[in-house]
């Protein structure tokens, strides 16, 4: 079922609870009573078009409105991606980490194996953090500069410097798969480890890993299929400008 | 594994499309075409060479045995009859039967059985393979943090061989990253935790 602007946002969430963190990233908090999607977007100054494209793409795996999404200004896409990054760094990763630590403090002989998982996850966490920092410090400033140049049809000195220092092609090449280690961790926990005494917590961790992977997949899809092609086109038109 | 291809032939569009949507729950198979016209059956079967043909006997040209001879000799096609008639089994011979009144699970179970039967002949069961002692040795070196070149030098084999082994190990275990392989190696006592850098 496609999500439309005159639906009640509460009904949308009932339809798919996985959308709760997604709307949160737009700065929308729960407790919206009977307000429609359009109402809530207006109140929170969220671009309704972008919001609908995103939640629908998230809700239905087969729906990916590439062309429509590419009409969204780079600034909005970047803002959304940044919100997602901070939810990974500030919430999701540390939540899972905390759970693994609690597993460890259980009084069992599984200590050694849990330490392995913990170290593995720490390694993953720093890998993902590095990936995200590169996007925030290099890639996003670059694409924002590109958008500004197009808007003004002119270079400021600073923008020229940024424009010449990087290209989206470099990003495309180096944009590696951040889910690989995560999949390995799931596989190890499912296939090769005997669950520790607190199996409920262990199961929750595996479920969290599945959710995180799905979310990351979706996130990367926006970076690769929406942001990158859009910026490639913009770069071309800047080259014509010069 | 190659996907099995399926054709559905029935006069009723509700049956054709309904059955196709039920069969979407099957893995490793795909309904490639729906046929609504009796005249087209032979031509389409010959052209598309499906693995499975699900057909209403009313759409069969001639009686079933004839079709078996005509359509089945050249390719290994499984025939499933689709009908609202009871006792179809007694009248016509086929590899499987679907009755309009069958529930979804009955249909899927029957189809799965046919898919398994078809695949068994051509595909040995590859998933249950364990890694060989040769591969274990390579895995141990990977876990110790050695590069492909270093492993090749130490074991007196070519880099190409190392790469091939690595690919097989990854495929068998379902683990891609070096750190994941390292955890596996520790869990299976190929190396000890203190050896890891
Ligand atoms: Fe990102
Ligand atoms: Fe990324």
Automatic annotation (TrEMBL), chain A:
It is found in: Cytoplasm. Residues 105-230 form the Hemerythrin-like domain. Pfam families: Hemerythrin (PF01814). GO terms for cellular component: cytoplasm. Gene3D superfamilies: nmb1532 protein domain like. Coiled coil: none annotated. Its main location: cytoplasm. Keywords: Cytoplasm, Iron, Metal-binding. The keyword Methyltransferase does not apply. The keyword 4Fe-4S does not apply. InterPro entries: Hemerythrin-like (IPR012312), RIC_family (IPR019903). This is Hemerythrin-like domain-containing protein. It comes from Labilibaculum manganireducens.
From TrEMBL, chain B:
It comes from the Bacteria. The keyword Repressor does not apply. SUPFAM superfamilies: C-terminal effector domain of the bipartite response regulators (SSF46894), CheY-like (SSF52172). Residues 124-189 form the HTH luxR-type domain. InterPro entries: CheY-like_superfamily, Sig_transdc_resp-reg_C-effctor, Sig_transdc_resp-reg_receiver, Tscrpt_reg_LuxR_C, WH-like_DNA-bd_sf. Residues 5-115 form the Response regulatory domain. Keywords: DNA-binding, Transcription, Transcription regulation. GO terms for biological process: phosphorelay signal transduction system; regulation of DNA-templated transcription. Gene3D superfamilies: 3.40.50.2300, Winged helix-like DNA-binding domain superfamily/Winged helix DNA-binding domain (1.10.10.10). GO terms for molecular function: DNA binding. This is DNA-binding response regulator.
């Amino acid at each position: 079922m496609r999500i439309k602007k005159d639906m009640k946002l509460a009904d949308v969430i009932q339809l798919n609870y996985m959308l709760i963190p997604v709307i949160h990233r737009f700065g929308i908090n729960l407790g919206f009573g009977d307000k429609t999607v359009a109402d809530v977007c207006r109140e929170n100054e969220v671009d309704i078009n972008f919001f609908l494209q995103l939640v629908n793409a998230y809700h239905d795996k087969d729906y990916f409105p590439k062309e429509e999404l590419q009409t969204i200004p780079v600034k909005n896409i970047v803002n959304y991606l940044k919100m997602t990054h901070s939810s990974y760094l500030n919430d999701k990763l540390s939540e899972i980490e905390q759970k693994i630590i609690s597993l460890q403090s259980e009084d069992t002989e599984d200590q050694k194996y849990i330490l392995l998982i913990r170290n593995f996850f720490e390694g993953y966490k720093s890998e993902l953090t590095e990936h995200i920092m590169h996007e925030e410090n290099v890639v996003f400033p670059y694409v924002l500069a590109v958008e500004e140049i197009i808007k003004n049809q002119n270079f400021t000195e600073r923008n020229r410097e940024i424009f010449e220092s990087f290209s989206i092609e470099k990003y495309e090449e180096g944009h590696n798969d951040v889910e690989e280690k995560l999949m390995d961790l799931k596989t190890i926990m499912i296939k090769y480890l005997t669950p520790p005494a607190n199996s409920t917590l262990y199961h929750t961790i595996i479920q969290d890993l599945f959710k995180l992977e799905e979310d990351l997949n979706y996130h990367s899809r926006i970076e690769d299929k929406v942001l990158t092609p859009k910026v490639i086109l913009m770069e071309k038109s800047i080259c014509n400008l010069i | 594994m190659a996907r099995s291809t399926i054709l559905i032939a029935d006069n009723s569009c509700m049956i054709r499309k309904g059955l196709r949507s039920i069969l979407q729950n099957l893995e490793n198979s795909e309904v490639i075409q729906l046929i609504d016209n009796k005249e087209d059956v032979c031509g389409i079967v010959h052209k598309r060479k499906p693995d499975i043909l699900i057909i209403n006997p009313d759409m069969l040209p001639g009686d079933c045995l004839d079709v078996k001879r005509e359509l089945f000799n050249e390719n290994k096609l499984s025939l499933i009859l689709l009908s609202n008639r009871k006792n179809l089994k007694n009248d016509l011979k086929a590899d499987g039967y679907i009755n309009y009144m069958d529930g979804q699970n009955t249909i899927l179970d029957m189809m799965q059985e046919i898919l398994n039967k078809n695949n068994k002949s051509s595909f040995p069961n590859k998933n249950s393979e364990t890694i060989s002692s040769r591969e274990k040795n390579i895995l141990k070196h990977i876990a110790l943090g050695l590069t492909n070149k270093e492993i090749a030098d130490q074991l007196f084999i070519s880099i190409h061989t190392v790469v091939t082994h690595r690919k097989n190990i990854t495929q068998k275990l379902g683990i891609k990253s070096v750190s994941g392989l390292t955890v596996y190696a520790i869990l299976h006592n190929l190396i000890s935790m203190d050896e890891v850098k």
